[in-house]
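Section 3.1 - Work completed
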Amino acid sequence: MAARRNTPQKEIIRHTLRRMCCHPTAVAVFEEVRRDHPTISRSTVYRVLGQLTEEGEILRLHLSGEGERYDGNTHRHNHVRCTRCGAVADIPAVEMDEPTETAGYLLTGCAVEYAGVCPRCRAALDC
């Protein structure tokens, strides 16, 4: 695939996502970008998020029970999702052995998602 141009919009969206650190949805990225760049369109943000994902510059997360979210951190790591509020955080990756039986599947990747209750929700439960 031919390299895509590094447009000003692409740089703005990349920088915004990496600054957010909260694993936002595409809608949240769009809303954040629009604060400083009100003329940028929703379709531009969605298209650029797709391009950045294809180019390996960001991650598209498919979390259980939720829509897609995006992550500017492409280093190897896992995620934990709060079962109460939906917040997502990075946690260190742990080594896992590949399964010896794959039911005939050719394995192409693995994503580990932990579920729990975040500190803010835990504090609210203690009230």
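Second construct:
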Amino acid sequence: MTSLYAIGLVILGTLIGTFGAICLKKGSKELSLQPLKLIQNYYLIGGCALYGLSTVPFILALQHGDVSVLYPVTSLANVWVCMLSPKLLGEKMNITKWIGIALIINGVIAISW
């Protein structure tokens, strides 16, 4: 049986990964393959670091639950990105995105229950 602790860890991991994705988006605006510019792209480096860090709670969660329950919860990262990107990146939400968010949340609830 998958514990709420494990689900909470996965949710934490998705939040960390969400900020990683937002940093990668910001860093992509300054993307250059020149080594000096690449190592000075703090958003890109931070985004990669956050993505890596986001796996730690997921790995810990796997000790306390079924991967068939926990892995679908990672789709909540899509929800967090959609919710935060208008505020942090100036992106727009539309009805299709809201419907997608509702479907993802319902799917996560159904699988986790």
